[in-house]
Amino acid sequence: MPSSRPETALPTDPAARREFLRKLFWSAGGLAASGLSWPGLAQAAAGSGKPPTERAAPSAPGFDFSTLGPLREPDALGLALPAGFSARIVAVSGERPTPGASIWHTYPDGGATFAAPDGGWVYANNSEVLAGAGGVSALRFDRHGQVVGAQRILDGTSTNCAGGATPWGTWLSAEETTLGRVWECLPFGSASQAQVRPALGTFKHEAVAVDPLHRTLYLTEDEGQGRFYRFVCSESDWPASATRPALKSGRLQVLQIDGVPANQLPPDEMNLAQPRRVSWVGVSSPSLPQGIVRSVLGSRAPGTVFRGGEGLWYFNGIVYFSTKGDNRIWAFEPATQRLQVIYDFATASAADRVLSGVDNLTVSRRGDVLVAEDGGNMELCVILPDRSVKVLLRLHGQDESEITGPAFSPDGSRLYFNSQRGGRHGAGSGITYEVRLPA
User: Fold this and answer.
1) Distance from the CA of 14 to the CA of which of 174, 277, 284, 317 falls in 20 to 30 A?
2) End-to-end CA distance of the chain
């Protein structure tokens, strides 16, 4: 069948070609006139009109993942990496990362890094354990990248799956239970300082992402009949002069794809690789568990159905999220209110069908989307700006586990991730790795 990609001549120089493709990333699934326009990128470049919470673009471009070569044979840790990469273990569940540090938690899941004033950083990471035994720990690194401690920053919560970093420097930890809520934690603080944020809804939370340009938070729900949510802060909750919201008052809404009836999946014949207009509908009884509310409303329940929302990340005006039930990666542009699928395992080319079991995700400084597998063959994959897929790493000997919590160090030179049910010698209750990227 004819290609749906823009018919535009590519530069012959490899470096120029890669940059050209980056600029075409979001029109790759449709005609340029109907593709996402990414005004967030233009606004960031112009340096005007940004709220005080919008962080400046990194000075260094970061590693170019389009240059990834084939994976080598597994190293002593069981990790297969491309040439030039190296890895180490930085924490193991049930052990203290350093003498006197908190014991590293069981079943590590979503995570993010936060820069420290002394040049070091922390990796905040969730614990997906039931019955009030979950929570969050923070692994502390000095400016040389050495592990110097660990501490608990949230206790007494359940099934803390993913979450999200905020532009104001906190970690939002999300509980994946019917009565799940979002907790705001201080990466360099203590568990006693964490605060619950009921306004963000009660449901099987997965991840959270903040759009500071529109003062809105986005949330995924890990249910087969789940929804994609947003929380629009009220003017009093996030005043124009404030660096952050109170997260106490606003509107909790669900996304509705135009042309799709409420409480329905998008039909199979709908081409979701083309940008689709959406609207937002207020949830019914926002203070009540949404799974229960929907069971009462039945066909009247608002919003388009998404098959198991997972990872979520905001980058330069775009909200990316994954749905595991159909192995898709989505991109939503708040400025134009358009949504499209940028990766679909069912329709991907043979070369790109290396990514399955999509779960946690993050985005590189260059805009590459890194997706962790829950299932599949324990890989961490990269979706490049031309929408081709490359395998960054594969973990051998831990087939009953899943890869979780990918996060770059603040300077972009290191990448953290977990094998949730891995151990030093195969199966275990969790192990955390650091990968060094080539300079």
Assistant:
1) 317
2) 41
Give the three-state DSSP class for 292. helix
Confidence band for 376, pLDDT divided at 50, 70 and 90: confident
Dihedral sign from CA coordinates of 208, 334, 227, 284: positive
What is the average pLDDT score of the chain?
Answer: 89
Whether residue 396 contacts residue 80, with contact meaning beta carbons closer than 8 Å, is answered with yes
pLDDT in tens, 277-301: 999 999 999 999 999 999 999 999 9
Phi-psi region of 11 (alpha: psi -120 to 50; beta: other; left: phi over 0): beta
CB under 8 Å to 36, separation ≥6 — which residues? Answer: 26, 27, 275, 318, 331, 333, 336, 338, 340
For 387, the token pair is 């929408």
Amino acid residing at 256: Q
Cβ-based neighbours of 317, under 8 Å, separated by 6 or more: 38, 39, 40, 41, 43, 44, 211, 213, 333, 334, 335
Other CB atoms within a 10 A radius of the CB of residue 157 amount to 25
- Beta strands, E only, 116-146: 121-127, 135-141
pLDDT of residue 66: 95
Cβ density class 365-404: b for 16+ within 10 Å, e for less:
bbbbbbbbbbebebbbbbbbbbbbbbbbbbbebbeebbbb
**Structural element, H or E, at residue 167:** none
pLDDT by residue (tens digit) across 8-33?
Answer: 343 445 454 444 434 444 444 333 22
pTM of the predicted protein model: 0.88
